[in-house]
Fold this sequence. Notes:
Bound molecules: adenosine-5'-triphosphate
CATH superfamily: P-loop containing nucleotide triphosphate hydrolases
Number of helices: 7
Structural class: alpha/beta
CATH architecture: 3-Layer(aba) Sandwich
Largest sheet: 6 strands, mixed
Amino acid sequence: MEQLTFRDVFYRQGGKEILKDVSAQFSAGDFVSIVGPSGSGKSTFLRLCCHLISPTEGKIFFHGKDMLQEDPIGLRKKISYCFQEPVLWGNTVEDNVAFPYRVRDRKIDREKIVSLLARFHLDESYLSHEVKGLSGGEKQRISLVRTLLFEPEILLLDEVTSALDAENAELVEKEILRMNRKGVTVLWVTHNDAQSRKYADRLLTLENGRIQSSEEIK
Ligand SMILES: Nc1ncnc2c1ncn2[C@@H]1O[C@H](COP(=O)(O)OP(=O)(O)OP(=O)(O)O)[C@@H](O)[C@H]1O
């Protein structure tokens, strides 16, 4: 069975048709790059994938069940979304990386956190750093650490390496690839041509709110 299915989905907001007649299917373990010009609807598509917003028309199914009927908290644990603009909260980095444990009522695994931070070139001392003093690239990596601490079924990534230098972008790509190889579905919005083809097995192109093409890469 398909993991995630869009059937004839429209999304309208503010008198504008942002997504039009979108149908698409994703299976467990897919790695799909979502590309298209600015304003073509890529972020809106990702927000629909995790029910941050719901279709104006049409349906989205998760494991064959209408997503609107899914428990929102349960869904958050199965489908993780990393935003284009990193959103950090609380005072310190620790407040952020502890959050995924708090929502799951699990004991914090400090060793795992420190090891994931290290993979992104952030040492343990960052845990006590105040969020407000961090650079854009540090914020982006910390928001990724927060997202990647638990393996979701589907990982939604929106331009997550845009504030990173080439070396850090590659570290992030490797980590995401590692997750995908464990079976996590990755839907990745990227403006970077090379990045969009590097690991993905499918390239989904949006244009003016419609799926313009779906190209198998390998
Ligand atoms: N809540 C909203 N109300 C009105 N218009 C919206 C809303 N959300 C998105 N839009 C508009 O819908 C279009 C698609 O936006 P979206 O952010 O999905 O595009 P995108 O392809 O991700 O763009 P970018 O590559 O620039 O991030 C844009 O024209 C945007 O201004």
